[in-house]
Write a structure and sequence with these properties.
Largest sheet: 4 strands, mixed
Strand content: 5-15%
Structural class: alpha+beta
């Protein structure tokens, strides 16, 4: 279509502009009539030699627009060399037989086998010569957290390479990183936590492997713990595509606690089970939701917690002190408490009850837990309450040990007195 004296029309010029990547301008009576293609391509200018209706059929010939463009004979040769589409013949294509397929696969396997042999030979002659990725230094660190590059060896940089947590603190023997400051975790021995108490029986034998039911408990340790939970676990779960193989949450998790006693026509659950008053019924209620735990073990662990956990004992004692004519009452579990007329450093003294009845007009701390006698509402527990983990994991903290608290006071390492 782009050669001189070619018979055709506007449709053919449109196709020619797309095939040969040229920008075509068509002139009629000295004025621009149509243009095709991208203006970024070389410009070719043509005009119609006839005066027929341009919107109907083919026309006589195309002639170059002499005033605008001069095309050399080299251009003609260029278009002559453009390959034409293959001619269609009636000859039948060669049939793709099963033998041809086998030969192709065989040749492919030979090629792959040859490359594997070359690779093995290279590895033997150049041990350690091949690297999994290029190692580049980490030079530009500003805002690099927003743009990770796999070629950069971030782990070799001292600013992020912390090493292993295998160095002991000179004060408290806690394991720390090599570059961590001495006494960083215990404030140079000014924070002294009480030692762990030995596990009572039968929990000790079940955990350490001395009990015949050791495997049964360890395989279902979470279920056994859930039998004795005093609080429930809450979170905003994310479910994608109506199926989630893993438990995925959004925002934060939280622990919830209910009333001390169940409402009429409701079965006790969580903390309420501890105050049923009937050992056999208490065991059945704990095992209702976990059919593969052994009731005999649950009963033994239940008796262990009633004997060793101070929160359970204090709650039971406080409920027994409530007058019989008092149908509704409140019990407070203090987040921080010290004995009367005692120094603030004795907050951790185990002789002080953490549980008491609520007195009219009594002021509460924001982190205190106030339990209703009968209620169908759940309240969240502050993660800063020292019994936050104790209520959720009663087997792990079977002695009612206190967890983290913002009011753990510093102690003089020499005199052992509170600062």
């Amino acid at each position: 279509m782009l050669k001189f004296n070619t018979y055709g029309g506007l449709c053919e010029l449109v196709a020619a502009g797309q095939l040969f990547l040229v920008f075509i301008e068509v002139y009629l009576d000295g004025e621009l009539h149509e243009k095709f293609g991208s203006e970024r391509n070389p410009v070719k200018k043509y005009r119609f030699s006839s005066m027929q209706n341009l919107s109907n059929g083919h026309f006589d010939v195309y002639l170059p627009y002499e005033d605008e463009l001069t095309i050399s004979s080299n251009t003609d040769d260029q278009f002559d060399n453009i390959p034409s589409s293959p001619k269609h013949t009636n000859k039948r294509r060669k049939r793709f037989t099963n033998n041809i397929r086998k030969n192709s696969l065989y040749n492919l396997l030979l090629n792959i086998s040859s490359k594997i042999k070359k690779f093995i030979k290279y590895e033997q002659n150049n041990p350690g010569g091949r690297s999994e990725r290029g190692i580049l230094p980490w030079k530009i660190k500003d805002f690099s957290g927003m743009k990770y590059e796999s070629e950069i060896a971030y782990e070799t940089d001292k600013t992020v390479s912390l090493g292993t947590m295998s160095h002991k603190c000179v004060y408290c023997d806690a394991f720390k990183f090599k570059e961590a400051a001495p006494g960083m975790y215990c404030s140079a021995n000014k924070v002294q936590l009480p030692s762990f108490l030995p596990l009572p029986e039968p929990l000790y034998s079940l955990i350490m492997g001395f009990h015949p039911d050791h495997k049964n408990v360890m395989d279902r340790i979470r279920k056994y713990n859930n039998c004795f939970q005093m609080t429930s676990f809450g979170a905003k779960q994310i479910i994608e595509d109506l199926f989630m193989p893993t438990f995925k949450v959004k925002d934060q998790v939280y622990h919830l606690i209910g009333s001390l006693q169940a409402l009429p026509q409701q079965n006790p659950q969580f903390l309420q089970i501890y105050f049923v008053g009937d050992d056999e019924r208490e065991t059945r209620l704990r095992c209702n939701h976990f059919v593969d735990v052994k009731q005999s073990l649950v009963k033994q662990l239940e008796a262990m917690l009633h004997h060793n956990n101070p929160y359970i004992k204090d709650l039971k004692t406080t409920i027994e002190r409530v007058p019989q004519n008092s149908k509704n009452f409140e019990i407070i579990i203090h987040a921080d408490r010290k004995p009367d007329n005692a120094h603030r450093g004795r907050y951790n003294a185990p002789t002080t009850s953490e549980v008491s009845l609520v007195i009219v007009g009594q002021q509460f701390e924001e982190r205190d837990i106030v339990l209703q006698s009968h209620d169908n509402k759940l309240q969240g527990i502050s993660e800063l309450h020292r019994s936050y983990d104790t209520f959720q994991y009663p087997l792990l903290f079977c002695h009612g040990e206190n967890g983290y608290s913002i009011n753990i006071f510093l102690i003089d390492p020499k005199t052992k007195l509170p600062l």
